[in-house]
Amino acid sequence: MKLAILEDIKDVAESLREIFSLEKDIQFNQIYFNAEDAMNFLPNNPVDVLIVDIGLPRKSGIEAIEYLSEHCPGTQFCMFTVYEDDEKIFKSLQAGAKGYILKGSAPQKIIDAVRELYQGGSPMSPNIARRILDVFQKMKVDPVPMPLPITTRERELLEHLSKGLLYKEIAELMGITTGTVKQHIHKIYDKLQVSNRTEAINKLKGNS
Which residue range forms the structural domain that includes residue 160? Predict the structure, then answer.
């Protein structure tokens, strides 16, 4: 596995290099101290995993990932940052990050996260994962109504019925006989599992 780091603080970058130096399955490739260098060089020198800080001079780590995810499709991105606010988390994930680890995590946790990411996982610091779950659980999603199990023609007839039209009036509008209208209505009742006009109309209104 080829690994690179995008981090503007030299001490942090060197600490990461040291953490991975003894891992035989991880080949340390390069440290980039700003987004621009990473965006210029990585497309021609791709790695498997890029560890990315968010707060960089000029372009941010999020902007770097937005660009690199398009130009380095084989690279997996893991944020490594002090930021744990919802906006930064979701902007990072939207940009293309598949992992989000907080600075201050134990060295072995960082190593495990990189391996998990390389193997197709999405490593997150526990409190980051919890924040993401909290946001999704608070989202109110309106249920999508199931389509009524009736034909377009039957729905048209039911809509006429909901307007209070008589069978004869519906027959004239639809170009069919009154007897055919009655047959359609019985079929509609069977399909909707209702026994009268009011129940059928209520089902129509609940689905519109």
Answer: 152-207
**pLDDT by position in tens, the chain (length 208):** 999 999 999 999 999 999 999 899 999 989 999 999 999 999 999 999 999 999 999 999 999 999 999 899 899 999 999 998 888 998 999 899 999 999 999 999 999 999 999 999 999 998 898 888 888 777 765 555 666 788 888 889 989 989 989 999 999 999 999 999 998 898 888 888 888 888 888 888 775 5
In a domain, 106, yes or no: yes
The type of residue at 206 is G
- Residues 109, 162 share a domain: no
The CATH number covering residue 170 comes to 1.10.10.10
